Amino acid sequence: MWLCGPVSGIIVQPVVGYYSDRCTSRFGRRRPFIAAGAALISVSVFFIGFAADLGRHLGDPISKKATKPRAITVFIVGFWILDVANNMLQGPCRAFLGDLSGNNQRRTRTANVLFALFTAVGNILGYAASSSSHLHNLFPFTITHACDVYCANLKSCFFLAIALLLTLTTLALTTVREEPFTQPKRGNTGKQGSVPFFGEIFGALKELPKSMRMLLLVTFLNWIGLFPFMLYDTDWMGKEVYGGKIGEGRLYDLGVRAGSLGLMLNAAVLAVTSLAVEFLARGGGKRLWGWMNFFLALCLAMTVVITKMAESNRRFTAADGGGTTPLPPSVGVKASALVLFAVLGIPLSVSRSSSSIDMFRN
Questions:
Q1: Of 42, 81, 82, 230, which one has the fewest beta carbons inside 10 Å?
Q2: What is the predicted pLDDT for the residue at 43?
Q3: Is 222 left (phi over 0), alpha (psi -120 to 50) or beta?
Q4: Same domain (yes/no): 36, 128
């Protein structure tokens, strides 16, 4: 299931970018795709939040221990739609910022910084909302026979997210003007048809300068290392740092909650650092980009060090039925893991911003 993000990104982003660049709608080039992406996100979030309820209506058993294949299917479908919609929304949003900035590089960098900032702010709000155990009180109808309190809290978060997304999208699309795009007229010698989509993509890759190819290669390698950590960071916290096991005791759950706190710290650091990216780049954009890649590699390597620290300092207590049960990690180990989560926001503020491309280009 987790492959849907990279797969949809590889396919959807280039396709959406290609057609949004050539869209001649009277509403503009970017706004139709932004509106469609926001609408699809709302639909996908509904499927994810109500997967258990829809699965029950489709015939899943009500028992908590029973396998619920229909709910799982609905959830996976919703997850795929969500990733496709995210790529449909974010690409045109960035392109729209570039269109509004014109050829002014300073405005473009500022727009990228603000984009990264508000992305981080959204992450912080999401983690803060999900940490509440009483959010379902705002929407009492979310608790059903197929959905307990935890599920209802998730639904409530989704309702708030949908309301905020649709409100802000409507506000932005109705207040920010976009001039309709007109296809340039071809000359008399332009009888040859337009280059096919994939032909144009591969042609652009061939024409890239060596520095840009190096940027793409390093970014590709970065995400190979970073993506597994992003998928399993809270799981790493619960299993490796806290020493818990899924479904056995509360230790794993405590670790996952601590990992969620770390992700919120990561988003906060990313938000603050994104404001300083343009200032830091004045000393040399390429140098900053390079050092941040080394720093990212160091942070990922520290996961091994922290895991070894947690194992060597693991404490145990006697279990009721005999044997031993691990205790939560020491304050030093937990603090080290949380600091790692937080400082990862520094290189991410550079690598996640398209302003790094401008740094490398210049």
A1: 230
A2: 92
A3: alpha
A4: yes
